[in-house]
Design a protein that fits this description.
Helix content is 39%, strand content 22%. By secondary structure, the protein is an alpha/beta fold.
């Protein structure tokens, strides 16, 4: 074998080794990224999760708003990426605790009884006005001592929460998407899909409650979202009971 042939053979071998090492490195990084994603969402391979759907507050019991359907599609893609499965459950049929399976709960307390229960038991510092039919207080959030009112189509708010029982040890999280309008629910799911890696780095496997603002949805849809504040502490601290009325 002359020197030219030997150099060609050595070059081919070196290229093959480099390609193999590159493939191994890419596979390792992809698997590590997948495991981190699965850990954050509580979705190991072949795990089952729940998509708890609300109803159209102004329509039949089983109707779902168009933007809520889009939100479910966003969540379904996340679940599929984790090699897991989703089961869709109506809000009034999900009669179980949480911690055994990852749950994604969508909609405000007016249209989702499951969300109403979660807010009452897990986030006692949050109130959402589900009684007003018209006026500036429709859907208004009260979190701690602050109030957040909706300006429909211009400035709307949504809570995005990841909550675990027992400090997150060996339990599956529940994700809440509690918005003032259906389009804000979709905005929160899209925000989670885009920023889950950053959220995982910041919070690890712990709980968090974020208040997001959807800006000018009538022009930009669910795409322009601002983080208003991390309201975890205020949301998990019970609101003070109103002082009893005193007789004159």
């Amino acid at each position: 074998m002359n020197d030219d042939v030997r150099n060609i053979v050595l070059g081919v071998i070196a290229a093959g080794v480099s390609a193999a090492l590159g493939w191994v490195a890419r596979t390792y990084l992809w698997k590590r990224r997948l495991r981190r994603k699965q850990s954050f969402f509580g979705l190991p391979d072949h795990a089952e999760s729940l998509l708890v759907v609300n109803r159209n507050a102004g329509g039949p019991e089983l109707s779902v708003m168009r933007h809520d359907v889009f939100a479910l599609l966003e969540l379904s893609a996340l679940i599929k990426d984790c090699n897991a499965h989703a089961r869709v459950v109506a809000h009034d049929a999900a009669q179980q605790g949480f911690g055994e399976r990852t749950e994604f709960c969508l909609g405000g307390p007016a249209s989702n009884r499951r969300m109403e229960a979660h807010l009452s038991s897990l986030l006692p510092g949050v109130r959402m006005n589900a009684e007003a039919a018209t006026g500036p207080d429709v859907g208004a959030f009260r979190i701690g001592g602050e109030e957040y009112r909706m300006d429909a189509g211009r400035s709307e708010y949504v809570l995005l929460a990841r909550l675990t029982a027992d400090g997150g040890l060996d339990t599956r999280p529940v994700f809440l998407f509690c918005g003032q309008r259906a389009i804000t629910n979709q905005a929160a799911t899209r925000y989670l899909a885009r920023h889950h890696e950053r959220l995982a780095r910041k919070y690890g496997g712990g709980s968090f409650v974020l208040l997001l603002k959807v800006v000018n949805s009538q022009a930009y849809g669910p795409d322009v979202v601002e983080l208003v504040a991390d309201v975890t502490r205020a949301a998990r601290t019970p609101l003070p009971e109103p002082a009893p009325a005193t007789a004159e």
